[in-house]
Each structure stands twice: as C-alpha cells, then as structure tokens.
C-alpha cells in the first residue's frame, strides 16, 4: 500500500543542496561535458594536423566567441573534475571525512575550479 504522505511532485529547484552536494553534482556534470566534447576535440586535432589550410581553419575556428566560451566551460570542467577527483580520493582514504573538513574542502574545490577557469580566461584573452 502506498503511503498518502509520499510527495507526488519533487521540485528540484526548491531543494537546497549543501556545498558538498553541489560539488558532487558538478563533478558528474563536468565528467559528462568532458566525455561529450571528445569528438569535437578529436575533430579539431585532426583538422589542425591535416595541413597548412586545416591549421588555418582551426585557428580561425578557435577565434570565434562561441568556441572560446565552449573552451572556457570545458576548461572549468577539467579543473573542477580534477580537484573534486582528488578530494574524493582523499575521502576514500578517510582524509577529510568529518563534516567541517568536508565542507571546507568542498568550498576549496568549488573556488579553485572557478579561479583556474578565470585564469584560463585571462590567458585566452
């Protein structure tokens, strides 16, 4: 028998995840973004190594604002996934499992990923 008190509608926008939960979700999203970007990155590599005209085309393509934004998001994905992955490896070794430490390391991962992406943006411009 189904309980009448079970929620029938779960509004994900109203749920307030703690920072470690946000970092965990972003870790998954960054992994998916990196995986989905592989074909495009392989295409760019192939195009840039196909000859002088392909290299020029790749250079022109990488200069467009949309591709720069895509590369910035991809850079954030790589940085965040790296930092969060190191955090999870430490947690697997029982380092930083306590609640205050887990909260602090999650905040560090979140800020470090954003700062690394901003530094990448500054280098790209």
Would you mind describing this structure in some detail?
This protein has 125 residues and is mainly alpha-helical. The chain has a single domain (19-124), classed as 3 helical TM bundles of succinate and fumarate reductases (Up-down Bundle), CATH 1.20.1300. 76% of the residues lie in helices and 0% in strands. Helix 1 packs antiparallel against helix 2 and helix 1 crosses helix 3 (65-92).
Q: Largest sheet, if any?
A: none
**Shape from CA axes?**
elongated
User: How many DSSP helices?
Assistant: 4
State the total count of DSSP E strands: 0
Low-confidence sequence ranges: none
Can you lay out the helices and strands and say which pair or pack?
Layout: H1 19-48, H2 52-62, H3 65-92, H4 99-124
Helix pairs in contact: 1-2, 1-3, 3-4
Describe this protein with a few key phrases.
mainly alpha; 3 helical TM bundles of succinate and fumarate reductases; 125 residues; 76% helix
Structure in a nutshell:
With 125 residues, this protein is mainly α. It has 4 helices and no strands. The chain is elongated, with a radius of gyration of 20 Å.
């Amino acid at each position: 028998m189904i309980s009448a008190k079970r929620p029938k509608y779960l509004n994900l926008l109203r749920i307030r995840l703690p920072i470690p939960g946000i970092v965990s979700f972003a870790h998954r999203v960054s992994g998916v973004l990196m995986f989905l970007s592989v074909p495009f990155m392989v295409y760019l590599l192939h195009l840039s190594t196909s000859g002088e005209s392909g290299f020029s085309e790749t250079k022109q393509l990488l200069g467009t604002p949309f591709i720069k934004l895509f590369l910035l998001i991809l850079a954030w994905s790589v940085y965040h996934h790296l930092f969060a992955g190191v955090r999870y490896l430490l947690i697997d070794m029982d380092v930083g499992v306590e609640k205050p430490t887990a909260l602090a390391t999650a905040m560090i991962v979140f800020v470090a990923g954003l700062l690394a992406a901003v530094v990448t943006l500054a280098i790209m411009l």
